[in-house]
């Protein structure tokens, strides 16, 4: 692959990588962290583009990897919006469905560049010896001290550091799609460069100032739309809403899950006429004895609601009685059609201090008692 032929902007670059990745003599995989948020995705794509543009090595590909299954991309609603706005289709991106680091490692062609993290997560710990570069803004874990290409600096966004590398080469060749990805991500990560949020640095501000004219966007308009899309779950099915922000736990033989959903129960009932059936289907798919859904939304003031489901009526009664007697301040809400009283509870939650982080240890203690 001739790494210099990037005239088509990011889509052209990604298409070229796809065409050449199977026959590459060396594969530099640029990978964001396992949470795969917008910063990880955008910084990986733009850093891979920058590395490819600098390289003169024939037979080398620079492949940006998003370390989640392709089907999970749509759950990152702000990322789906920004990539689409930049003219980049989901089909052009690379996910774990498309790339096996294990296969590349066995072939001896793998070089791994970590972006938006500086220590591989558990799923990728086996590839520590393959790490050849780091660009990150988190706390330095002290790994890879001898790497030539190692940039770790506490700025607001990993995209700020990637933008700095690109801008150091001059403004003329930056495609507007890369400028849009980088600027939009920095704005979202720093809450529109707001000092009160405690995330922004002068370098973040400087990169946004340089990138926005190339992206052709208004700072406020771009931030407002990204902020809206971050919480816009209108396009997601009940199944996707439940798995978008989901954590699973076990207490003895009881497997239970807790989902956070940014939607009111009233809106959810209107959106899905078979809501109880879909909650049951999700619990079955995860082999759960108990599913708790914590709804949080602002319409117009911040409000919490709670759904409790268990296919086991005895377990449901135990959890239901406990929660009603707790300080969550629960009051019953109208049940949707199809709700079984012995298995489902639908509640308004007056005590807003109970997030999943606070409620989960209480549930754990109950189930282990």
Provide the CATH topology of the largest domain. inorganic pyrophosphatase (n-terminal core)
The CATH homologous superfamily of the largest domain is called: inorganic pyrophosphatase (n-terminal core)
Proportion of beta-strand residues: 15-25%
Mean pLDDT equals 95
CATH class of the largest domain, named Alpha Beta
* Broad shape: globular
Q: Report the oligomer.
A: single chain
Which structural class matches the secondary elements?
alpha/beta
- Residue ranges: pLDDT <50 for 5 or more in a row? 1-7
Strand order, largest beta sheet: 3-2-1-4-5-6
CA distance, first residue to last residue: 61 Å
Number of helices: 13
Report the CATH architecture of the largest domain: Alpha-Beta Complex
Tell me the Rg in angstroms. Answer: 23 Å
Total discrete domains: 2
Order of helices and strands: HEHEHEHEEEHHHHHEEHHEEHEEH
Assign a percent range to the helix content.
Answer: 25-40%
The total of beta strands comes to 12
